[in-house]
Amino acid sequence: MPRFCANLSFLFAELPLTDRPLAVREAGFDGVEMLFPYDTPLPGLRDALKRADIPMVLINTPVPDWGTGARGVAAVPGAEARFREEFRRALRVADVLGAGHVHVMAGLAQGRKAHETFLRNLIWAAETAPEQALTIEPINGHDMPGYFLNDFDLATEILDTVGAANLALQFDAYHAHRITGDVLGTWARHGHRAAHVQVAGYPGRHEPAGGEIDYPAFFARLDAEGYAGFVSGEYRPRAQTEDGLGWLG
């Protein structure tokens, strides 16, 4: 089976944040990720990770206006200065928490200018932080209408154009299913670019078990191909988190 990590923003939400890393470790996960740790007292979270002896695998770039509908600015024309400021903030937080990857959120934008803006910002980010692993993630337009990066072929074209060794694909199987309806086929075409994988069931975005996505087959494919990254549970538990962990195997 792959190495599994848990998204602290979704799983074990019934516990205080600083208690979650140890609960994750005791449940059998090997790492954690978190959406936006920017309003969190970082020393407390860092110490909780150390006590649990578990790594922070990934964080997103900041989206301080998420509650008003924003979804990042990396592809938003005219927001380049804001992107650079927020990206530098992400690097500082990643350094404190030891985050292995920073997911660069494209934001709500469309068209040629958005495409050019995203490319320029990714090139700048990759050059600014050559030692920091970065990812981009196609997100389906049903859950996030208007998100610029909503297609795996587009992600491939962008990765090829940027051509940076520290920029890779973030493959979310839930989004892949909603975008293409074919998780295994999408992985066959694009999985070799992936440095991080996320999973959730469909429908409902609950535990990755049952439903329309064949996760046993997907995990077997990852093992067969020697995928070395983490597979993160980024889903909404149906009840208490511990009640739905049978999918870990």
Description of the molecule:
With 249 residues, this protein is α/β, with parallel strands linked by helices. Helix content is 37%, strand content 15%. The chain has an 8-stranded parallel beta barrel with strand order 1-2-3-4-5-6-7-8, surrounded by 4 helices. The N and C termini lie close together (8 Å). The relative contact order is 0.15.
Strand order of the biggest β-sheet: 1-2-3-4-5-6-7-8
Percentage of residues assigned to helices: 25-40%
Shape: globular
The run of helices and strands is EHEHEHEHEHEHHEHE
| Distinct helical segment count | 8
Radius of gyration: 17 Å
* Cα separation of the termini: 8 Å
Based on helices, strands and strand pairing, what is the structural class? alpha/beta
Q: Report the uncertain regions.
A: none
The multimeric state of the shown protein is: single chain
Average pLDDT works out at 98
- Residue fraction in strands: 5-15%
Largest sheet at a glance? 8 strands, parallel, barrel
